[in-house]
């Protein structure tokens, strides 16, 4: 695939004032990179899981006033959408890059997914110390991966309608832009490799 190199300009897109202006920059600067990553990792996940995966580049189509504060490409085994399914993402906020697996509030079976994860929390101990967790895909804030925080988030995923669960790794602007295209690809694949057993637990495979 054509290589993806992150630059300061990618992150500066989220500082551009105005919906139209920011959307224009997103379309020309960031989306081509998401499309490239989309092609590469859809093939990667299809091979790794045995299910055909499809890339979904964020369109932000419902926005009429507020410009998007983040953007992403998601991967799921369904061509028409991803939000109702557990999915993988590579994305950017203005402050950092994220690589995660996510269950968000649209998932109809998230209580069962949470139960499966709660029954298998030991597998999280195998992850490196730089993995982080979150209960809100709309916020850039994350927590360190500790059993107590993990239990709390997974219980919320199970019991609260708006409960969500994201886990993965973040790269600061400095870390992202210092990486060569090959180094980023290796980092992303290594991250997804570590997340695949968790994804399989989520879907009960």
Describe this structure in words.
The protein has one domain (8-203): BirA Bifunctional Protein, domain 2. It is built from six helices and seven strands; from the N terminus they run ααββββαββαβαα. The mean pLDDT is 95. It is an alpha+beta fold and 205 residues long. It has helices spanning 8-12, 19-49, 110-118, 147-159, 173-178, 181-203, and strands spanning 54-57, 70-76, 87-93, 96-103, 131-134, 143-144, 165-172. Strand 5 (131-134) and strand 6 form a beta hairpin.
Task: Outline the low-pLDDT stretches.
Answer: none
CATH architecture grouping: 2-Layer Sandwich
Kindly report the average pLDDT value.
95
Silhouette: globular
Pattern of helices and strands: HHEEEEHEEHEHH
- Characterize the main sheet: 7 strands, antiparallel
Derived structural class: alpha+beta
Q: Which properties best describe this structure?
A:
single chain, 205 residues, alpha+beta, BirA Bifunctional Protein, domain 2, 7-stranded antiparallel β-sheet, globular
Question: What's a concise summary of this model?
Answer:
With 205 residues, this protein is of the alpha+beta class. The protein has six helices and seven strands; from the N terminus they run ααββββαββαβαα. The radius of gyration is 16 Å and the shape is globular.
